Hints:
By secondary structure, this protein is α/β, with parallel strands linked by helices. Helix content is 28%, strand content 30%.
Amino acid sequence: MSIDYLLKKFEENSRQEAIIWQDKPYHYDWLLQETNRWMKEIACHIQPNAVVDLSADFSPRAVAILLALIAHRCIIVPMTSSVESKKADFQATAQVEYTIRVDEHDQVDIHTHSRVINHPMLCQLKSKQNPGLILFSSGSTGKNKAAVHDFSLLLKKFEKPRHSKRIITFLLFDHIGGINTLLYTLYNAGCVIAIQRRAPHDVCQVIEKYNAQILPTSPTFLNLLLVSGAYKEYNLSSLELVTYGTEVMPESTLKQFHTLFPHIRLQQTYGLSEIGILRSKSKSSDSLYMRVGGEGFETRIVDGMLEVKAASAMLGYLNAESPFTEDGWFKTGDAVEVEGEYIKTLGRRSEMINVGGEKVYPIQVESVLQSMTGVSDVAVCGEPHPLTGQIVKAVIHFHTDHQENVGDFRKRMRQFCQGKLLNYQIPQKVVVLDHALHGDRFKKIRRFAS
Length: 450
């Protein structure tokens, strides 16, 4: 797909709102002019097919520059402030030749690096003269892996016109879900509602003020929204759809949200930095079962694990071995249950807890404990034990106004879990922390528990 298709779309919808940023609307005619301006500017300063670190958020100018870099067939490495401490390492791994920084005032600075590109994947993209995309994983289970994509393959999924909606960019600019949200919205002439703060009150305020229709987010954020009670202070009637992914959803959170907002459709999404975002359909708004796949994707279950073959799959990692099978299937590492044509993700096999031969997935325990009075969040992991191999350990974060010592909570927890969890699933060790159990991406960080 050529960028010309997108620019023509901008021209056809020139008077519609394209982006709302810092309480100011930017229309498609502005975005068209700004993209054309930056196409000329980039051609004067940056070589075609160069590797470019685009340090930005979803500001209007950053969006225009992203599109201009695609048109210039550059290999783009989006980065946000959430990875600032790792930025130098990321730049070295990606062999970045230029940095374009767009600050909080939408001002732009371009810096040149003295690097020689020699990684075979980057050389392959350059020789094909295709735009590229490099995404770094969160590194929650180890080092950050750099996934290299042919951007032209990722863009193909947007060829088919879909609904034009007003969508909040909750997932970050350097996340596959954030990129997917942006491109889906622009290719369908919707409105990108960019947010600077992602606390529950801030998000609810934006939904009410700008009549947001879709909120792509994470289970962790939905839990925080419920715990905070922020939804009670705002009119969220414009919201039609909440999509959730990036981690496994606790069933207790899903059912509570659906009960409170029966008019909002809940849709589980599935995607990874390595393969892109699959089309998905939840069995129902209160079900954790979903159907995944669609055009360009195939799925199969091998030994209880989900594998995906994708037309938009990455070329590979810059800094790790290939995760693909010999016949081209990507091993997701996610254990699943199957019910007809639907699957339910249980979590990463690597996070599974083995208690004397019995399997325990953290989400099974977290879903129960999270519904206890006073619990704001919980992270569960396994801890070594000389007799059973492992025991279940739970780290608890209480509501700010909840006071309870660990001993009293442990007794109450054991009583609460009776009939809801099997004995070996009930945590044998409990720790209380006074800080949140998630990071900037609103994804549960279980290393707090380990």
